[in-house]
Amino acid sequence: MGxxxxxxxxxxxxxxxxTHDICSVLLTRDVKTVVTGTRDGQICIWDFDPPSLKLxxxxxxxxxxxxxxxxxxxxxxPGSQYIISSSENGEMCTWDIRDGRCLEVFxxxxxxxxxxxxxxxxxxxxRLFCVGNYPEILVYDPMTLEVLFSLSARIEPDWISAVxxxxxxxxxxxxVLGLTTSGWVKVWTVSEREVRPGEAIYEHESKMxxxxxxLSMVCCDYNQRTVLIVTQNDWQIYDAGDFSQLCKxxxxxxxxxxxxxxxxxxxxxxxxxxxxxxxxxxxxxCIVESRAFHNKQHEGDQAFMYGIVKPQHLxxxxxxxxxxxxxxxxxxxxxxxxxxxxxEGQVMLWRLADVTxxxxxxIQQVQPFRCINFxxxxxxxxxxxxxxxxxxPVGVLDQLEGEKNPPRITASLFLPLQGRLACGREDxxxxxxxxxxxxxxxxxxxxxxxxxxxxxPMVLRGHQGRxxxxxxxxxxxxxxDMAHLVSGGIDFSISVWDMYTGNLVHRFVVQAGPIVQLxxxxxxxxxxxxxxxxxxxxxxxxxxxxxxxxxLVLLASQHLYPIVTVKWRPQHDFLIVSCQDGSVYIWQMxxxxxxxxxxxxxxxxxxxxxxxxxxxxxxTDAGLANPAVHLFRGLRHRxxxxxxxxxxxxxxxxxxxxxxQQDIHDHSKLRTCPLMVQGLRTHKQDANSHVLFFDIEALIxxxxxxxxxxxxxxxxxxxELIQSSQYQRMNVLTHPASPEGAKKIAAISVxxxxxxxxxxxxxxxxxxxxxxxxxxxxxxxxxxxxxxxxTFKDRDKHGILSKVxxxxxxxxxxxxxxxxxxxxxxxxxxxxxxxNDGRVHISRHLDITAQTLQIGxxxxxxxxxxxxxxxxxxxxxxILGLLKPRVPVSFGLLSKSGYMSLVMPTWHPVPHNQMPPIxxxxxxxxxxxxxxxxxxxxxxxxxxxxxxxxxxAMTTHHLLTLxxxxxxxxxxxxxxxxxxQERRRKxxxxxxxxxxxxxxQEVEFAQQQVVIxxxxxxxxxxxxxxxxxxxxxxxxxxxxxxxxxxxxxxxxDRCQEVREAxxxxxxxxxxxxxxxxxxxxxxxxxxxxxxxxxxxxxxxPTYNNHHEAMQSPKPEHNSTKQNSSSHNNQTVNxxxxxxxxxxxxxxxxxxPHLDExxxxxxxxxxxxxxxxxxxxEGRRKQATAIILLGVxxxxxxxxxxxxxxxxxxxxxxxxxxxxxLLAPVSSKMPGHTPLRRAAMxxxxxxxxxxEPYLDVAKVLLALLDLCADTDRLAPSMKYGLPLIPExxxxxxxxxxxxxxxxxxxxxxxxxxxxxxxxxxxxxxNAQSLQMNLHNSVLYRAKTEILRIMDYLIxxxxxxxxxxxxxVTDIVLHCVDPGHLKSRGLNEVFPAICGFPQVSHCPHTRRxxxxxxxxxxxxxxxxxxxxxxxxAHQEPVTAVSFSPDGKxxxxxxxxxxxxxxxxxxxxxxxxxxxxxxxxxxxSTIPVPEIVRMNPQRLPKLVWVSNRTVVLxxxxxxxxxxxx
Length: 1522
Prior knowledge:
By secondary structure, the chain is α+β, with helices and mostly antiparallel strands. Helices cover 33% and strands 25% of the residues. The longest helix has 34 residues, at 1000-1033. The two termini are 72 Å apart.
């Protein structure tokens, strides 16, 4: 979850209900939820209300890739909300049915046909007994999907077809009955306390019976003596004592039995594949209470069928239905329910009333005999739910007018570069619509409903019949034409379209079957093949067609079976085709020759080898040429985007040459579209629904990138988005001074200013030229560029730069005048009726900025809590640009392995009986139809309170999205989502670069920005702090708070805005819980907190230089208890509580990657992949516990009620955080991960709590090591774009050091002073010790140390005054001595000279510092020595050198004494110098109130070489002579 991308799915379901071919059903024990699995792999969760008998489809779970064979509850305890699903390809999933999250996924080699959850004795959790096409019974932990043990057979092992578990009375173990396909009954006696992990338990008894391929076996719960066994052709009753057959009944003609169960001790119910069930009364020899029990069955004593359970209208079913019988204990006995789901999607529920013996006799006496018909109590389906909705759920093409029964959408493709959605339909047409405009049209109110050309579609016609597939080759590779769209249809044709003009470019008809798939060859193929596309047809053929040559290159048509996959081996020129029968055909692409056909193991090896070599080598252009040359080329080729890019590269190159800087930003999101649209079909014959995926990180990155592109480096620096000047100033002081370096530094500001202006002007030119074709203008610009290039060859560098600057300004002026002369106006949304040929044309240049704002507008409008604050709603509509939703939104939720939960449009989170009254204006309510009034009412309730009652996981993701986007827009100089206002804001930003002063427009704009910022701030406050109370005030009692574990895992998210939102939400939620809630949370997660018995590493790990790994401490896990005890027997004492903790053989370290999608490590010897997955999940919980407890300790740990006092919890948490920081870099614990960053951050935030348990020196050195490249990585640490891991760790460590220094300045200063003293000692003996101190942390991190000291001097002066000698030691360590040769300390580091206790004499190169103990530290910079002089009995208040450097005067305010000192050297400068006191004076005592104010201390000012003036705080002066 941590670095798993924050994605918000939204579903447009469309007018037609999805196909729901049910093959498995489950009714939970609380009779409130029905679960149906389909043959297409989807699972539907239905809410069932027993009093009203109302069944409502709540959400659709998407993830399985094949038919869902069986379903089971994960636990039989009341209130359990977890289910297990298993598909026919071995996929097993654990789901949370409250919100549809997938909690665990496991791909088993075994395919299960039946799963039974059972609560074993003395075991807290249920166990899952599974049987299938394998010769054993596997027992799983339903939450981790780990195989705990298995039940195997010694005698005649075979597939187990049926199983039943029971617990005999007065026994402490379970009896498991298993029936093999060959008819052998196996009996196991199981007690989990006696089972070893992974051990196979063999049967205790076995017997052969006459029952082959049984479908189910049920032992009667009422007597545990009779057993019902059902096969396809008959059902039989056996005596459980000796398994002798008591009764046998054949199936009715034309039907097949599917299963059965006991209604009572003498009644059974059996169901068939025909969709109905039969109820029988057992013969007397099958009734335990009867005297004839176990006797031979008489001819007249047969099973009596007296009831039929069937729907009111029995329909022929193509596939067999799924059944479940469940008996619910109630006060009056048991409520017997029978559930059925069929291939038509119908879910039926029968309440089976008891028929007494007296009623049964009466039925038998009636002639002719008529069975009792049980009608269904509930009969519902998705199709009925859709038909009941008025209006129908929205679809993407509902805006097309004049189509009463529009053709189905059969193929969908989103085109990010054009911002359009292509939809192929059943009639052969292809519709291209703008995606964001279409979404706004269907989901949001607004002015856009009045625009005639809003979301105007383009129609492509050319196919005869349905369009099966679409492909945009340029989206797969840039080598293809940007205008080409390829479609394949049922008419055997492949069409190539120019989607900008709507023309058909070419039509291929080369295959003899419908086209089912279109592919693009990899980029490493030959040039000819690279221009081809690949098509797969239902005639079992594969074709390669060249779009460039417009002819067929290869037709591979000798395959005998349907094609499954197509692979490539470009290095051998092979096209590899895998068919359904397992055969593999290898074709030569250039010649079209069939090279060979492989079968079996060889075929599998070839396919797997293709996967290994599938990654192509991508080449990148370094582009390190002079940026000025790129400027000329851009102007010559009329590419203004290249001009702007070259200017930006010029800035980066100058900074890079100066700082040895690399690109520190993570570009993985910079080209990702914030919105993706994916078609969704539950069945191949269905119409496409569409899922909108809003990628929050990509949206934030795009918004910030567009904003930063408008800013010059000076503006970025002024807004504190970059800190180049500050870090450069510190970096210069820590490096030796040189004339070349000084010149280079002096030129930085000139280059930054010039390139910034060129970039800004090029951006303005590009924007204006995109509005209209200006061929004449471009020609004049080209001539101007040619003249500039000629000048470039004749002038020197400085002349070049000035000319480029002047020419860029001239071109800008020319463009401006041309634009004004032609009278260009902003494009109107009203269609132009003159000169329009009726065909829609798509612009080749998408306005990325406008599209990004539209995406943000859609997302924020859908997520905002409308109706909770009326004034805020008005602000959102009128000022911020949000739009109210038109319909209740069907959101989705992404979880593990990309599995999705999609909310159904038929479900509303607020029950009908809890709906508030309609709140619409009376005149509007009268105008609207009743169904629209009802829809508006449902929308209002959903957006205000229902949205936050769905699930905690959805609340968490949506709050993170809202808060992070609101903060982003607020930080973007108060941006809005209103397009016109946003254009004015950006134009103002560009125009304000050249204008200065406070004119009326500036004042008005500033006032508008304040109002906008207040709006975003109010929206953030509502969703961060006020939301629970506001939702409760609206009448809700079911608000689902955010999940603290998800927020904890995003504590150090890669995206800075998401990170800050998660931190704010987590801190707010912890505060809302109160002390009691936090106590419960601590008790829950402290069980997962690892404890460390080994000492921490004795040396500081090196993050930036990977040396050999050190021996790391092994953490222990307190919660390994039952589950972990199955893996090992080694125990160690747990520190602090004396308990025993089981330790795994694999070191249980906190998982470095908080996201659940990270690739797991390889299994060790003797381990299975499932063991690794289970341990990884445990390690992930450890990591979450460390972060969560670290946050609680950092913000609430100083409260004694929280349990973080001087106790065990604080010590364990601090040691865990320190371990994550100090652990050596290894494959299991990489150097730069979100978990390490979280540990750094929390150590800094909660340092006062952790300090007693930390080795402060080690922690500081480790953080400084991460900041060793501060001058290279950290100048942009406040830049909002995601950083590479190294830069992100540098930024986090720098912030942590600042927090530590601010919270405990004395601890930081004294610790660093000790380390500096140790470094100086080593430096004096470095040659003899053969040590290279240039690689030490203190040497490499001088810049960061100096930055922190500068921060402390400015903000913590009181602490600095008490530790002036230590501060001076640290500063002199960081500042290179060469800077003090020609300049004074007040020029080099003026911050420290603000204290009167420090004085520097440039003539003698000495620095004097007054100490708190009354001594004076005399630093000889020439000899790099320091001498401590006992001067006063009280703290030294001020020191100062005379102008000629011969005298030093010192003053102690507490002692009221002023002294003159003179330093004498030996003859000819040899020998040691001695400092002696020449004179002392008593001064006037200073009042106590003045002494307590550190800002008003006396100062010493020399007026001549021998006279000093003591200037008091009140302005009085006292003169003293040396």
